[in-house]
Amino acid sequence: MEQKNPQHLVGNHNIDQPIESEFEQSLKSSDTEERIDIWFYRPIGLFIAKICARAGISPNAVTITSIFIGVAAGILFYYQDLWINIIGMLLLVFANSLDSADGQLARLTNQKSRFGRILDGFAGDFWFAAIHIALCLRLMDQGWSAWIWIPGVLAGVAHVFQSAMADYYRNVHLFFIKGENGSELDNVHDLQIDFEKLSWKKDTFSKFVLNGYMGYTRMQERLSPWLQKLLAVIKSKYKNGLPLNLIRDFRAQNKPLMKYTNIVQFNTRVIFLFLWIFIDQVWLYFVFDILVLTPILIYMVYRQERVSKYFFSAIERKSMYEHENAL
Length: 327
What we know:
By secondary structure, the chain is mainly alpha-helical. It has helices at 22-25, 35-55, 59-76, 82-109, 114-141, 149-178, 188-197, 204-222, 225-237, 244-254, 258-263, 266-278, 283-316.
């Protein structure tokens, strides 16, 4: 179905595409999806989402279930019995299938909410916190000293940064190609306004969660200064919508960088986690997280900042994007 209006509005734009299938509608975007997700997790997630939709189960209930299953999976990695570990692996795969299903269910049934996004974003952190604790205790049982908690904690902190920035850059990409309605891009300024509307007495839990999420978002913004400048200039210059050629140019330059957001996310780390468990060398998981995935995170941020700087400079110079502003 073709766009009738050549101007893609910031809050409602989308790249011209044919009518999507139910499976495609359940995805955020093919630009940001990893092949393993497309081939494996998303089909399973859609199947679960359709069952939940018929049963009236909410996306948040699916997310909470995934947290408990993912934490249980992590606990099973403590044991030095391969068959128990394999059960943990299967549970972790199922937890991630549920994590896929909650978003697909929210998109198919239009039950998207900020709280759901926050809960979904933190689900993986609960899983991997359990995994890191279990692996440290396992290694101590094998004779390692308590010093193992240092790389265990460092790898956990690295994971939080990797996950946060990968998720942020994906949402920035979705913002450009789908607009606010197709993205989950938040900013501290808007969150602060909503935070101040809440009362610690009446909205204690909601205010506590939002306060934590503001800190999470603030970290993402501090690590992406050129991106913040780009988003600010877009907000000031294109109040009536983004020029179509800006959207297409950004997509062309930014889409190749989405592979880095995928590398530092769930699938890569879990494949190697399972490998280290099979050979009973789980300490390598911490080394891999710190010395392999963290440099990839740094390179990802560097490349994304270069793209943001390029488009910020192009817009500030009143380049070819200027004349489409009034369309």
